[in-house]
Give the backbone structure.
Amino acid sequence: MFDCSVLQQAGRNPSQKTVNKYWTSQTTTLNFDDFCTILKKEKPATKTELLEAFGKIDTDNTGYILHDELYKILTTRGEKMTRDEVSAIIKQGDFNCGGKLDYNKFCDLYLRTSEQCCKTAREKLEVDSRLRQQQFGNQTETSSEGFIPPVSKPSPRISRKTDHKPAPAKGDSRTPSRPSSAQSCKASVSTSVSVGAGSNRNTKLIEPDTMKEWQCAQSKGCFYLEEDGEIISHKYRLHLPQRSAVCITIKPLNLRQAEGKSCHWLSVDTALYILKENETQENLQLVSFTEQQNKEVFGWKGELGSGVYWLLPFTTGCRLKKVKTQVTGEAKLVYRGEDGELVLTKEFRAALLDIFETIDLDGNGLLSLEEYNFFELRTSGEKCDEDAWAVCKENFDMKKNELTRQGFMDLNLMEANDREGDPSDLWVTLLSLGYNKALEMTEACPFVIDIYAEKCKPRIKAVYLEAGSWQLNRAVCKSVVNKGEAKVMDGCENIIIYTYKAGRRITSVIENKSDNKVIIHVNNEQSKNCLSNRGLTVFAVEVAPKSMMVSQHVMPLNEQEEWLYNCVHSLLR
């Protein structure tokens, strides 16, 4: 729920109706840019407006309102106040006397309090700014043009230890700031795209008949949703020993689900960006991405030369996002059998089998040390070394130095026994893998990648499990710029809006060619049957000088119905 105190510190006092306008059922977070937009639209009340409102009650223009009348109005009309809230107002000695409220004095105190809130907030910002400069230096963040190879690092999840505490959420990397005074132009660009019902599910992904004879490589992976809404996933290195025609596809992994369990992730959009490695990892070039679609499968066909490529999975976040759902009760994970020994419940065993299926990246029915370490990094932030793996080999079922399904089950049972049946650590594992307390996978999306090559055997290897890097963001932007429709803002030729539709996804990118940062107001209020990754119909985006960034991704809310994308990008002064 939106915290009104933030707006109150900026001198606003919004009604619940006003709050609901900005915090819709799809909203999960509001960033600083969104906050600035709200402040621009919701002006602070003036004394004249306040006196006019009170004057509608005080029709005789006495300057006073009887407490009994005020009590009746505030508890029965509009957004009703409680008896205690009204009592707190009429007990204030500054503007109450003899059973009456002096609304002139009330307005004066209201405005002084509002101004003091703004002043206090400004002073705090100035102190925070000085502290940041002392700690980090007065520097602005810049991005390198070259590719920085990802560094394998533990996900900021919760420790397995019983006294676990949530890792601190990552803050927005952008420096909060107001629009530059150098922005002199006032302009907007309107884009409208209408899509018929069902037409967005197929964009001519046709597999050649001869592909059945092509050599294939496959790997699974997963998108995981972090506490702060960030999405992390596996990243892959692809090696082609010689030039060949290839077909690369990605789709959500269809796991066996227990009856009554919904497969939320099957509706999640997936994509792969293909980047060519030139001599070193520091130099990657965007080749293409999986823009063709056949139902839930996204693919790309073409010819690739020999060499090393990086495959970067991507999802827009339109469907894979934080959603507050009511979960009645908590699923039972373990119980004690007749002999007093701990046993995994049927439901927990089913969830573990799905987890095993997801983390068994090569699909051979066994977990290698590398595959198991992706699981460990995700759930505990630590890796299992060779010595620890040797201990596992002595205690759990393995084949060819790889953990079997039964061994994986026994490993989790051992963890339950270590805590004498306390499921806390087991829940840490499940929650970090996207499960809720009803054992439903709601914050993860497993996927499978297939690479077919006509003339050689392709090799694919999962290398990292981490958040989308800047090179992925750059690839997304470049793909939209290369294939999308460009519109220049009238009167502001340095600002260009690119819009690209691929299957059931529309992406817009803002390019700022000027020497000043700009803040772009984005309005989707005229769109119909649309779902944005921003979670808002109206928001603002700050774009650094000489840079470009994604404005938003949009998908249909209901794919069986027609949808209309109607977006206006405006330059804020």
Observations:
- Residues 188-200+483-571 form a domain with the Immunoglobulin-like fold (CATH 2.60.40.1180).
- Residues 129-185 have pLDDT under 50 and may be disordered.
- The chain is about 25% helix and 30% strand.
- The longest strand covers residues 215-225.
